[in-house]
Amino acid sequence: SALLVSPAALLSCSAHTHIHTHTAPRSALLAFLYIGALFPMSGGWPGGQACLPSAQMALDLVNNRSDILPDYELELIHYDSMCDPGEATKLLYDLLYTEPIKIVLMPGCSSVSTLVAEAARMWNLIVFSYGSSSPALSNRQRFPTFFRTHPSATLHNPTRVRLFQKWNWSKIATIQQTTEVFTSTLDDLEQRVKEAQIEISVRQSFLTDPAVAVKNLKRQDARIIVGLFYETEARKVFCEVYKEKLFGKKYVWFLIGWYADNWFKIKDPAINCTVEQMTEAVEGHVTTEIVMLNPETVRGASNLTSQEFIAQLMSRLGGKNPEETGGFQEAPLAYDAVWALALALNKTVAPLRAKGRRLEDFNYNNKDITAEIYRALNTSSFEGVSGHVVFDAQGSRMAWTLIEQLQGGSYKKIGYYDSSKGNLSWYGNDKYIQNSQPYLNNITAVGCVLALAAVFPLGIDGHHVHRSQFPVVCQFRLWLLGLGFSLAYGSMFTKIWWVHTVFTKKDEKKEKRKHLDPWKLYATVGGLLAIDVLSLMIWQIIDPLHVTVEVSFITKLKSCLITKLLRKCGVVFGYKGLLLLLGIFLAYETKSISTEKINDHRAVGMAIYNVAVLCLITAPVTMILSSQQDASFAFASLAIVFSVYITLVVLFVPKMRRLITRGEWQSEQQDTLKTGSSTNNNDEEKSRQLERENRELQKIIQEKEERVTELRSQLAERQALRSRRHQSSQNQNQNHSAPSPPSSQAEPPSYSPGTEQHSLPPSFSNSSNLYQGEGKLSRNHCHNSRLPLLYK
């Protein structure tokens, strides 16, 4: 009620101490324009920690520009609202009823902006927010003078629905903190998923303690969960999530993206979970966030690129860790908010001068100046460090949505969504490729190229090369085929060997070896390559290939001759054949295993089958056809070409397809769900969980039984005591009163004093049968004095 005092009374208010940002004036004749701001330095969203320095940066640059408000100086008067509407009410009173007059108000979080924007129209004040996302603020009837550089939270919902549709999810669950911003966001989400024929199967909400809500999500088997709450409550939620084991590959959490990057690592006395537990619980969750930093290197209205802005902000923060600084992500929005205000105020100077007015003439009764500022903001359009700044009819900013996922304790960009065009574009997809061991894939590709290159020297004969150079061709064939096989097959064999080594051991050894050191893989490939190089060098030095000439009636053929052919080929084919057979065995053994470390081992197994079969057929056939050069060349070259191209297709085409058409995260999830081992692991996990719940329930039942026994004994004692007192009082009555009435008028045995005056509640009468096992208690036998004990 104090805020509704007449604005005219402000002119007689006394001065009040305030905090303000002062910059050196450019001229003694400058007029000052004051911006009243509320920056939350603590609370549910401590965005002022980075947004305040960002706004001060913008003010300094604006005040130093001679082409923007040349006759004015902008001053920032700010308080800490703690993101609390109650505290903001008191501070708003101070801002309004303390000189100097403010021309614009700048609140931060949504709950505070709702209060400020609804009251501001009484004072003809423009309200410009840098950190409010509540959809309720997009209401021109309720908030006629409100603008914001932070887009509405409903901009997240089209992105979420698009992801649900892409990943073919038909049921989701929601859990929200009961505040207006999240309630209105959820209302909008419900409408959108209904239009997309997606069901919200579970709805949970909480005010301060999310324990019951999280347990209900677990009880109702929620899997795809949208969480809407502030950062402090997020820590409480995921502490309960850890306790209920509501995380892992079976669950997908969608959260808001404007938390600090290390929000789950911040020590919070309100929770009793360790940082390690929190890190485990939040791993893999997906966030949607408005694109708040221009990804392009563009110099906008402030003549700064987004990268230069971040560098200057870091300098102003004094080296403080951005992950531990609240509002760091929203800092570009606060920066652009000040610039939007400055440009709009600058745009009003000429129209006001034409009407004989000036900006410094503004007071809380002047609607004309407010209308000019409103029109200028409504038509704003400029390039800021957060991207292109433009407002819709409701005063909200339109922007792209960034999709991120927490991978290995840090957020990774996985895509963007343009709600205006409905375009979903994936980013990077580096995790899927990285988990397939790309360096080994490169080695496989190099080996395939060398094997293909060997086809050319295989087809060369004496018509193309002089006899003196023919031995070089023979060596080239041998080296290209040997090295190509070692690199291509060796890298695939290494992958499948590692998967088999880890996942076929006992549990205690498996846990020790689950950590994959890439150098071990490279060392294995290097070892196989070294064996081939050493054997080829020894072969070439001791007994190199010779040229033999075979003359027939039609042609003269030159070929490479290997002395002691059977012995040497037996050694080589025996070694390579054992590797091929071992590779087939390992591929068969690991066909049902799922692992993230080498996520393409099934494709590798298929490639090994292909190479092994072709090699085991081709080697003996080419030896048999050695005297028929054309047939031998055709058979060997076709075998090499087919094995190489099938290997490349099996290994690389799925990766290319997923990079182009699908998201990495979806692919991993679907692969996991398709594997038999994953299903078995899930069944085992469910079985262990049921066993734990069974033990807990048995413990609870035992405690309840002990309590029931205790209550029964107390009831028996009370009944005995009551009987003794009743008998004693009867004896006293017999000694001091008249003779008892005839037996026909005696009280019934079940009657006790007071039973007619007070009737038992129905709930107790229904539950009293629990105690009829001992003492044959019933509704008629239970005295009123026992009621408090039973209810307790």
TrEMBL record:
Regions that span the bilayer: 478-498, 519-542, 565-587, 607-625, 631-653
Domain of life: Eukaryota
Main localisation: membrane
Pfam families, per database record: 7tm_3, ANF_receptor
GO cellular component terms listed in the entry, alphabetical order: G protein-coupled receptor heterodimeric complex; postsynaptic membrane
Molecular function via GO: G protein-coupled GABA receptor activity
Ranges of Polar residues composition bias in the record: 665-681
Domain (G-protein coupled receptors family 3 profile): residue spans on this chain: 434-675
GO biological process, one term: gamma-aminobutyric acid signaling pathway
UniProt subcellular location: Postsynaptic cell membrane
Region Disordered: start-end pairs: 665-693, 708-792
Keywords (A to Z) from UniProt: Cell membrane, Coiled coil, Disulfide bond, G-protein coupled receptor, Glycoprotein, Membrane, Phosphoprotein, Postsynaptic cell membrane, Receptor, Signal, Synapse, Transducer, Transmembrane, Transmembrane helix
Membrane topology (UniProt): Multi-pass membrane protein
The UniProt record lists the keyword DNA repair: no
Low complexity biased stretches: 728-770
Protein name: Gamma-aminobutyric acid type B receptor subunit 1
Organism (species): Astyanax mexicanus
